[in-house]
Amino acid sequence: MQLLRSLKAKLIDILSGDADFVLQHAHSRSLLSEPGYQRVKACRVPGEKVTDLLDHILQRGPEAARGLLELLKDQDLQETFPLLCFVKDLRVTTVPSEATRKKKQAPETEEIIPVQRICRNRSRLVTEKQLMTVARAIGRSWREIGRLALDIPSVKLEQIEEDKSQHVERVFAMLGHWRTCQREEATAAHLHSLLSQDDWALPPERIDFLLETV
Question: How many Cβ atoms sit within 10 Å of the Cβ of residue 94?
Fold first, then answer.
């Protein structure tokens, strides 16, 4: 992610030559969420479109960032944007997390059950009860979280604000809209990941319950 962030200004300058071409290729590789794709697609200014695309991918985390860097090495992208030749020499490394290192060191018999629990938990869709608990944990910055973390359009957030008079009801409606848009990807683990990133990260003690196994 840090590598992509450091190249952001240079990439905006290069990719603005055909922003739609880049967007369609990124979408074909599922580097954007569907709401994020629609939001970026709606932007008419090439430079702003590329900026929104890069910001969205950075918000999605390291895996999406690595995916974009790999996409930029693709022959179609290289032929369309000759100035991207420097990307081919970049090495995208993955730093193993502490949990991954511990898992590798642990005896095989000790990791079977935890891994199964994690898999089940990651595929578990978030419930309304969990959404309400999260809604109570989100403060006055809920609109920023909606736009930046959940990729909800400002128009939708304004509509929610008009329809709901209470703060918690507004946040709950926003989270419900996110769940509807994400469909099968609206897991508790996914929501936890989105709310743990960058400047809008919520305190771990307020959202770690989303990772608890049933």
Answer: 9
Q: Smallest Cα–Cα separation from 189: which of 214, 170, 169, 172?
A: 214
Paired residues of 187 in beta bridges: 125
Q: How far is Cα 211 from Cα 117, in angstroms, rounded to an integer?
A: 10
Give pLDDT tens digits for 29-87. 888 888 888 988 888 888 888 898 998 888 888 888 888 888 888 888 888 888 888 88
* 36, 55 Cβ separation under 8 angstroms: no
Domains of the chain: 2-89 (1.10.533), 106-211 (1.10.533.10)
Task: State pTM to two decimals.
Answer: 0.45
Handedness of CA 210, 113, 62, 44 (dihedral sign): negative
CB atoms within 10 A of CB 90: 14
> DSSP states of 111-164 as a string?
HHHHHHHHHHHHTPBPPHHHHHHHHHH--TTHHHIIIIIS---HHHHHHHHHH-
The whole-angstrom separation of Cα 36 and Cα 26 is 11
Closest of 49, 46, 64 to residue 5, by C-alpha = 64
Query: Using CB atoms within 10 A of its CB, is residue 78 exposed (0-12), middle (13-18) or buried (19+)?
Result: middle
